[in-house]
Structures are given as C-alpha cells and as structure tokens.
C-alpha cells in the first residue's frame, strides 16, 4: 500500500507538471465537476472553471522544477500529495518558489482525479 | 458548509500552533493511532510516535507566525488545510519559512482529528 502511494503520487506529479508546462489545456482531464482549486487564495470549483483559470494565467510558457514530493494515503482510499519546487516564467530572471498540495481520489474508471488542489507562491 | 470549513480550519490552526508554541506535549490530543506525519521527508505513523517526534525536536521554545490559511472540504466530511508561515527559533536571528498541510477528519466524538500532516521548511 505504502509503496503504491509513492508510485502513484510520483507518477501523478510528473504527469501534472509536464502537462502544465507543455500542454496546459489537457490539465482538465485530471479534474472532475466536484474538484476544488484554491490558487493564491482564490477559490475555484469545478473542472470547467479550473480549466479556464489555468488557461488564462498571464503567461504562455513556464517551467516547473520539483524539489520535494511527500505523499500519504488519506482516508477513503485517496492520496494526499505535497509538492515544493520553483517556477520559471519567460522573461523572468528569478525562479518563483511555490508549494502545492493535492488530494487525489479514486475515480470510477480505476484511476485518480484531483479532488483538492491548493497552490501558493512562497514569499521569502 | 463552506463557512463552517473556514471557521473550523481557522480555529484549528490557531489552536494547533498555540499548543505547539506553549504546550507542545498537548499536541498529542489532536492525533489518533492512525494519524500520519511526514516531517521534512521523515514518515511517522501513530499518535505515540508523532508525539515523541514533536517532543524531541531540538529546541524547547519556538514561535510560529502564520501568513496564509487555505482550506477546502475534502471527501468523507473532512477538511484539507494548507498553512504557510514562519518559525522563530530561540537564538536564531532569521525566521524559517515553512509550509504545512493537514487533513482533518471527523472523530466519533464530534470534533476533528489530524489524519494527515505534512511539514516542510521552504528553502529560498
């Protein structure tokens, strides 16, 4: 169980940030109608609204560098994932440090979707 | 519901860090035998082991300053809470920035306990 949690969360993190950096509109496949995103304090509910928020971020390309991935099994067969890393935006010299947590929940199809997503930039 | 989640998570955060800073041994009241803590990558399971870890941290007094608290209802009537802030240790000039997430789960007694807890210092 413990090992499966690690494997799923690492694969999820790799997939999520790869889509974010290379094919952001495909992130919608990871959310459901009940999903929630809190982005720098702004609350957004539902796959459509979350997809619109991510699509309309004020930059086209970015690159995430992952520093740490921690995960635990949650109740109800889910997984909580905590990520820290940095975000490189085009034409910005400095990386922005961020932390993000996900609560992954099993979907009827046998995979996982993002039920909870909270993102914060870390100000130094 | 949304409002209750905010109220519970803010009260929890205030209570948790107040105990941490003033009466650290009482933090054990917030964990159960199934609780999990990942502290700077180290995995600890169960209220006894978590209490021992927190008790044996290499400083007696500290002070947390909270910058942001984000919360969402999770599946199964729980609450996910994401905290950012800084930690002042005795005889340290600088604050240490940290991020921490909690998954609070309803207890049979009608309150909440910490099922998942992940803590990371933010390195700049």
Automatic annotation (TrEMBL), chains A, B:
Pfam families, A to Z: NTF2 (PF02136)
Using the record for this protein, list the coiled-coil segments as residue ranges, or answer none.
none
Biological process (GO), any one: mRNA transport
- Record key words, sorted: Cytoplasm, Nucleus, Protein transport, Transport
Subcellular localization? Cytoplasm; Nucleus; Nucleus envelope
Q: What is its main location?
A: cytoplasm
Cellular component GO terms, alphabetical: cytoplasm; nuclear envelope
Q: Does the keyword Cytoplasm apply?
A: yes
Name the CDD domains on file.
NTF2 (cd00780)
What role does it play? Answer: Has a role in nuclear-cytoplasmic transport of proteins and mRNAs. Facilitates protein transport into the nucleus. Interacts with various nucleoporins and with Ran-GDP. Could be part of a multicomponent system of cytosolic factors that assemble at the pore complex during nuclear import.
Quaternary structure annotation from Swiss-Prot or TrEMBL: Interacts with RAN1.
For this entry, the protein name equals: Uncharacterized protein
């Amino acid at each position: 169980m413990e090992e499966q949690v690690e494997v799923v969360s690492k694969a999820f993190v790799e997939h999520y940030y790869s889509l974010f950096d290379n094919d952001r509109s495909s992130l919608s496949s990871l959310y459901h109608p009940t999903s929630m995103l809190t982005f720098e304090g702004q609350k957004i509910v539902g796959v459509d609204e979350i997809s619109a928020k991510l699509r309309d971020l004020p930059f086209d390309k970015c690159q995430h560098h992952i520093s740490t991935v921690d995960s635990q099994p949650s109740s109800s067969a889910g997984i909580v994932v905590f990520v820290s890393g940095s975000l490189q935006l085009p034409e910005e010299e400095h990386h922005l440090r961020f932390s993000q947590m996900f609560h992954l929940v099993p979907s009827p199809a046998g995979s996982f979707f993002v039920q909870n997503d909270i993102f914060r930039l870390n100000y130094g």
